[in-house]
Specification:
Distance between the termini: 22 Å
CATH class of the largest domain: Alpha Beta
Radius of gyration: 19 Å
Strand content: 15-25%
Largest sheet: 8 strands, mixed
Shape: globular
CATH superfamily of the largest domain: Periplasmic binding protein-like II
CATH topology of the largest domain: D-Maltodextrin-Binding Protein, domain 2
Number of helices: 12
Number of domains: 2
């Protein structure tokens, strides 16, 4: 099993110039055994999804290239334009619904590989806060802040448009956006100091268990129902690559399977060794591709 190739895509993609640099690698004629998969490195579900598809695609005789993209808007644009073939792990039903609608006729939803994903506001286990509607009572201890992730993330949009207004927090709290890495650093620092903090999180995600946090109750139901994590491709992908599309339509992992692979990729193997992690994981889950 060969190690996947990885390249980084900068902000030029958003400006529409990405095609100049990627077209030669990403565009293939029907029947070619070559695909590219876009992922977002800080979001471990995209690495898990990319590794799973890569492993199966290479079994089917494909060459696979990974494209490192910074934020969902860039990745959706790349897939819509055909510069990247597949978005690994799009939260297509809710989190990324706006992008699915924006690029709808240029995208093909291949289907979910995991069902039951969801977003929430989280606090450390020791926190006195139990529900979102209690946040204003602890505003001073929180320095008036709720810590978020990337400004372009679907979770960020959901918090800004649905959650904060539902509880009046758009008027009383500052919602800080920066990056997933920065949010986790803030969370770790607060926990080390036993301070109050509220952050945006989601599951499945390794940090939701690694940092000993818990979701806040959401009595208004502002976060809505859970959703699936999907492979989303450039329109026409299933016609060009029917074997991969058929595999996706038949493939689904459960919570334990996902969590165990995510843990191996993040904690037991180095970046770039994702396929080695999948091979090791398959020793304990030998039938997962046949279920």
């Amino acid at each position: 099993m060969t190690t996947n190739a990885v390249r980084r895509i900068g902000g030029a993609l958003l400006a529409g110039t990405m095609a100049l640099g990627l077209a030669a690698c990403a565009e293939t004629e029907a029947g070619d055994k070559e695909i590219s998969i876009g992922y977002i490195p800080p979001w471990s579900d995209t690495r898990v999804a990319a590794a799973l598809m890569t492993y199966k695609a290479e079994e089917l005789g494909y060459e696979v290239e990974w494209e490192d993209v910074g934020e969902p808007p860039l990745l959706f644009a790349g897939v819509a334009e055909g510069d990247i073939d597949v978005y690994a792990s799009a939260w297509a039903e809710r989190n990324h619904a706006a992008f699915m609608n924006e690029f709808g006729d240029q995208l093909e939803d291949l289907g979910p590989y995991y069902e039951g994903a969801g977003n929430f506001l989280a606090v450390p286990e020791y926190s006195a806060i139990t529900s979102i509607d209690e946040i204003p009572d602890h505003a001073e201890a929180l320095d008036g802040r709720i810590i978020g992730i990337e400004a372009g993330a679907g979770l960020t949009k959901q918090v800004q448009e649905d959650v904060l207004p539902a509880y009046g927090l758009d008027q009383s709290m500052e919602f800080v956006t920066s990056s997933t890495t920065a949010m986790l650093a803030e969370l770790k620092g607060a926990i080390d100091s036993q301070e109050e903090i509220v952050v945006t999180l989601w599951a499945p995600y390794w940090a939701a268990t690694e940092f000993n946090v818990r979701p806040l109750e959401d009595p208004q139901g502002a976060f809505g129902e859970t959703e699936g994590m999907h492979y989303v491709a450039t329109v026409g992908f299933s016609e060009e690559h029917p074997e991969i599309a058929q595999w996706v339509s038949d493939f689904l992992v459960d919570e334990e399977e996902f969590a165990s692979l995510e843990n191996m990729i993040l904690n037991e193997y180095e970046e770039g060794e994702e396929l080695e992690a999948v091979e090791a994981w398959l020793e304990d889950h030998p039938d997962v591709f046949d279920e």
